[in-house]
Design a protein that fits this description.
This protein is mostly helical. The chain has 5 helices and no strands.
Length: 68
């Protein structure tokens, strides 16, 4: 899990994948508490799982992948 650990805030580096999925989005490096608040207000996103399964983010990822 070394590759994933590099993308997390220190406090979450040793968590299991299940724990990470249910962690707040601020567990991700570069996502501040304020960013997390805005994501929740705009899209109802509270956890890393919510972010990864959000339909708008998935649609955008699909478009980006097709554009490559």
């Amino acid at each position: 899990m070394t590759d994933i650990a590099e993308k997390l805030n220190k406090a979450y580096e040793e968590k299991t994948i299940s724990e990470l999925a249910d962690a707040p989005v601020s567990a991700l490096q570069g996502v501040s508490e304020n960013d997390a608040k805005l994501l929740e207000e705009a899209f109802g996103i509270r956890t890393v799982r919510d972010l990864g399964t959000n339909k708008y983010f998935r649609w955008a990822q699909a478009v980006a992948n097709l554009a490559e």
